[in-house]
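Appendix C reproduces, verbatim, an entry submitted by the partner laboratory led by Prof. M.T., so that reviewers can inspect both the input and the predicted structure.
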Amino acid sequence: MPDSGRGRRRNHEKAVETMAGEAKTTGTKAEISDTRAETSAAKAAEREPKRKPRLALIAHDGKKADMIAFATFNRGTLQRCRLVATSTTGRLLREKVGLNVEVLQSGPVGGDVQIASRVVDGKIDAVIFLVDPLDKHPHDPDIQTLLRICNVHDVPLATNIATADMVISSKLLWVSPEITPGVEVHPS
């Protein structure tokens, strides 16, 4: 009779092993299904056009050559952006670099203010404003307004080539700006 107890225990252990094996198989099928769904979603995301950052480009007269050199060097990256620029800067970017640029008014007649307005409206993701610090500008109040608006609205602002390179090479420029309060954003 003691053998019958061992037999029951053995049968119970086999049943448990069988049920565990079925659970593993079912779990594996579910995992495979989830993996397929994730792969399918990833492929769909790859087919969709990537986000196009909206950049404003401005350069004082003494920095226009620097802007053209910067844009020529970064042409491939800038072509993937929606570009807006003040009058002369935009015209030069079109003619010399071949970029598609929306051209606004010249800075002294309101172009800087037009860009500041777009920053306020959330229509600009970053501003590259190559400032000539050694020259006086009659529209300095407009320039200061644009700089202040960028700071108030937390819009990246580059005022020299080194910072401009950092801004356009940041992974954060290429992700959706939807930020949840209290959640830190870390690029992968």
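The two ends are 65 Å apart (CA to CA). Additional entries are available on request from the coordinating office.
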